[in-house]
Amino acid sequence: MTSPEPPRLVCNKTCAVYTEDASETDLAKHDEDDYVEIKEQMYQDKLASLKRQLQQLQEGTLQEYQKRMKKLDQQYKERLRNADLFLQLESEQVERNYIKEKKAAVKEFDDKKVELKENLIAELEEKKKMIENEKLTMELTGDSMEVKPIMTRKLRRRPNDPVPIPDKRRKPAPAQLNYLLTEEQIIEDLRTLNKLKSPKRAVSPSTPEHVPSAPLENLSQRYEARIEEGKLYYDKRWYHKSQAIYLESKDNTKISCVISSVGTNEIWVRKTSDSTKMRIYLGQLQRGTFVIRRRSAS
């Protein structure tokens, strides 16, 4: 009696199922190995690329490095150019300020030097004039400025004493008097003083008594002139330093001037034509030797 066929068929199907599962497992394992191998190959390629780029970077031939270095070099050169321009502008500005300050310092020094010299000259001239006035006053009043010798007591010389040697000293030079006024002005002033000091004369019969003698002040026109607080008061007007004036003399000469300084008893004026300076005393203004007129500064 033969065995039935159906059970044999079931066995064959089961073996077929087992064979398919093994094939799928082997295939999956093979794919995984390929993936790992591909991944390893990609890693090696990237590593080799990075090493190659690192080598190029060290040698300075990397394209990205050269590109960025070119950009940095341009920025560096632009910054240096701007710094040079800024330095040049600042240097020019400092040089201009230096030249300006130097000129101002030189001008101030020259002005101060001229002012100091004029003040010292005016002070010395004032002292000189005072000494000369005192000398002139003493000569007119008869006083003497000579120094009287000191009386010394002389003792009798003993027989054995040596003969005294005479003292040969140089005699002091006589004092010289330098007049600031002209000879005509000095003579005129002396005549006026002599008239004031001379006694009144008797009226002669030929002189009418009803005719009064003219006062001395009316012989020549007198002007009011004085100096207060560095300003000149003349003919009811005030004049100050750097003011433009006309200077008129007795010979009708009219000069355009500028007051350069005001002293204690005189003023200094500068001619506008040749910039020469003149010194005018208060006495000359009061006597009318010089007359001052205002003028416009244009």
Automatic annotation (TrEMBL):
GO BP terms: regulation of gene expression
Organism: Oryzias latipes (Japanese rice fish)
Pfam short name (any one): Sds3
Keywords: Coiled coil, Nucleus, Repressor, Transcription, Transcription regulation
Domain of life: Eukaryota
Name of the protein: SDS3 homolog, SIN3A corepressor complex component
Repressor recorded as keyword: yes
SMART domains cross-referenced by the UniProt entry: Sds3
Lineage, top ranks: Eukaryota, Metazoa, Chordata, Craniata, Vertebrata
InterPro entries linked to this entry: Sds3 (IPR013907)
Record-level GO cellular component terms: nucleoplasm
Gene that encodes it: SUDS3
Coiled coil ranges: 40-141
Compartmental location: Nucleus
